[in-house]
């Protein structure tokens, strides 16, 4: 095989790293593909790492040893995340979203592939380093968000469902109470969908009191799984939270049906402890 030019190597390596986040790629695999010395490959990876970091799109993690290699960790920089979430808050503030009963229409946002990709990258940044075995959500609106995050975190998605479906096989079922406390529902998860002792990230589109998320936590307890984080796209005001620790991207603080007004702020992402603290609304 002919030796690749450095410019060609850089382009092809970047393409492969971006397409397979979190996959550990041995340096020997690159060296054999491009018919180049490992020292040259290491120099190329240093260039790519610098570009990723300066552009705010992530970083490369090097693992030493015979079984080591390099993996791409997707991230988004603070300013880009802020820009994305300001747009999200602006769109959520549209009074045309108000539905009877004070509910908000979110389906168009959850169908926006570009927005979902950006939100997925934000969640991937927040929960980077958590060693996630699976991402869990509940049918149906949380599914696009979960897959958006999974595409960057390189983790499978498991879906909790209301009630039982024969196509799921044997299931584990728990009872959960809606955020309003007025309705009890059953959440089920197929026994085949999650291994015992998994480390799980919960992703959902909307949270009020957190009854649905609490139900997912109860389900995971039955699998002896560990909840490593909870991410929600939108939270709304509630007198009592059933979930203590979570990351929200936007917060609906008021919905005035009569005046047709919605007040939306940035979620707790920029006020919680961490690298993005202290950004004002």
Going across the biggest sheet, name each strand in turn. Answer: 5-6-4-3-7-8-9-10
CATH class designation of the largest domain: Alpha Beta
Structural class: alpha/beta
Query: SSE order in H/E notation?
Result: HHHEEHHHEHEEEEHEEE
Shape type: globular
Radius of gyration based on Cα positions: 21 Å
CATH topology heading of the largest domain: Rossmann fold
What is the averaged pLDDT score? Answer: 91
Specify the biggest β-sheet.
8 strands, mixed
Topology:
Elements: H1 6-19, H2 27-34, H3 38-55, E1 58-63, E2 69-74, H4 78-92, H5 107-110, H6 113-126, E3 134-138, H7 142-153, E4 157-162, E5 171-177, E6 184-190, E7 199-207, H8 211-222, E8 226-236, E9 247-256, E10 261-266
Parallel strand pairs: 3-4, 3-7, 7-8, 8-9
Antiparallel strand pairs: 1-2, 4-6, 5-6, 9-10
Could you please describe the fold and organization of this structure?
The strands form 2 sheets. The chain has an 8-stranded mixed β-sheet with strand order 5-6-4-3-7-8-9-10, sandwiched between helices. A two-stranded antiparallel sheet has the order 1-2. The protein is α/β, with parallel strands linked by helices and 281 residues long. The chain folds into 2 domains: 6-74, Winged helix-like DNA-binding domain superfamily/Winged helix DNA-binding domain (Arc Repressor Mutant, subunit A, Orthogonal Bundle), CATH 1.10.10.10; 78-270, Rossmann fold (3-Layer(aba) Sandwich), CATH 3.40.50.2020. 35% of the residues lie in helices and 26% in strands. The mean pLDDT is 91. α1 packs across α3 (38-55), α4 packs across α6 and α6 (113-126) packs across α7. Homodimer. GO terms for molecular function: DNA binding. Keywords: DNA-binding, Transcription, Transcription regulation.
């Amino acid at each position: 095989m002919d030796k690749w030019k450095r410019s060609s190597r850089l382009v092809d390596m970047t393409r492969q790293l971006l397409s397979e986040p979190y996959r550990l790629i041995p340096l020997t695999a690159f060296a054999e593909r491009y018919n180049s010395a490992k020292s040259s490959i290491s120099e190329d990876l240093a260039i790519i790492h610098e570009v990723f970091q300066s552009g705010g799109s992530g970083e490369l993690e090097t693992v030493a040893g015979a079984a080591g290699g390099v993996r791409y960790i997707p991230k988004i920089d603070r300013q880009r995340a802020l820009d994305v979430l300001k747009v999200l808050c602006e769109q959520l503030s549209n009074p045309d979203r108000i539905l009877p009963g004070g509910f908000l229409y979110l389906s168009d946002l959850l169908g926006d592939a570009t927005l979902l990709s950006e939100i997925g990258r934000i969640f991937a940044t927040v929960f980077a380093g958590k060693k996630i075995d699976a991402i869990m959500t509940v049918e149906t609106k949380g599914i696009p968000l979960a897959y958006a995050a999974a595409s960057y975190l390189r983790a499978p998605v498991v879906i909790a469902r209301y009630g039982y479906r024969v196509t799921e096989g044997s299931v584990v079922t728990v009872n959960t109470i809606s955020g309003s406390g007025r309705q009890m529902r059953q959440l089920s998860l197929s026994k085949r969908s999650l291994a015992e002792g998994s480390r799980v990230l919960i992703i959902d589109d909307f949270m009020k009191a957190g009854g649905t998320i609490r139900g997912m936590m109860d389900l995971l307890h039955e699998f002896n799984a560990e909840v490593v984080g909870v991410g929600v796209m939108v939270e709304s005001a509630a007198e009592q939270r059933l979930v203590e620790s979570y990351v929200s991207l936007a917060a609906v603080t008021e919905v005035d049906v009569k005046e047709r007004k919605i007040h939306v702020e940035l979620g707790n992402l920029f006020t919680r402890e961490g690298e993005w603290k202290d950004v004002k609304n």
